Every structure is written in structure tokens, then in C-alpha cells.
Amino acid sequence: MLNSFTALSVFALGRLAGAWPYQAGCCCTHNDPCWPNSATFAGLESQVSQPLIYPVPTASACYPPTNPSGNCSEVIQNWTDGNWRSSIPGSMEAPNFETFEFKNGTISACYLNTTLGVPCEQGSVPVIGVDARTPGDIQAAVNFAVQYNLKLVVKNTG
Known about the structure:
Order of helices and strands: EHHHHEEEHE
Strand content: 5-15%
Oligomer: single chain
Number of helices: 5
Radius of gyration: 16 Å
Number of domains: 2
Structural class: alpha+beta
């Protein structure tokens, strides 16, 4: 039986997938012309039991540094807590998994250390997802990813 947030199927692709240009045979990624439009995603949302989610990097709650958008002190306190991280849709097991390095050596990330003076970017955190609570949710997400040639990332709480 699936419990709350046991399986989270996520369609990746912020900057991670955007690193490679779309070519026939490759997965379609966010910002590619083949990426499904909002009406298409609304169709998926009508097939699943929960609203679609839009994950953000864990440290995004601490940005902008002058007026944080979320509970930054909670993020700082729990930054290395794997149990806490597993409950956050955009959070990976380890913070370095949330970053992405492009072939040219530049990095897309959202750093907890806001004094670096760099913006919070999506990194390798997927941009849209399905909070799968039932086998039907999983089937709908997988079928959608196959139909639209999207990379599928699965996150669960273990």
C-alpha cells in the first residue's frame, strides 16, 4: 500500500535536461519546443489523485537573502537531515545532488550559503511532478512520460 509521499514520480527537467539540445530520439526537456503545454499537463492532472507539484531547490526558501521566501531557519536547521529532506519534493538525498554542472563547467544550483552572491537556480531539481498516492497515479505518470517522451525521475521516502 502506498502511503503519503511514498512514491513521487517527477518529470524532470529544469536546467539538467536543458543542457542538451533536443534531438530526435532524445527525451524532451523543459524549454524544448516539444515540452507539453499547460493544457496538456492539466489533462494529466485530471487523471491523478493529487494536484501536480512544482518542486524547487531546498535552499530556495532562503532567497532572496534580503527577504527570504520561506522558512530559511528550518532549512538551515535540517539541511543534513535525510528524513527531513525526504519529505521535501525538490530535495535530494544530499545537497550536491541538487546541483548541475554543464559541459562548459558552469554550475546551476541553489546554495544554502546566500553570501556567495549568486542567484538560486533550479539545478537538477525537476520542474514538475506527480505526487503519486495510488497505483493509478503511477500508471498515469509513466504513461504520460512515455507518450510525450519525457525523462522520468522517481523519488520516494524509502
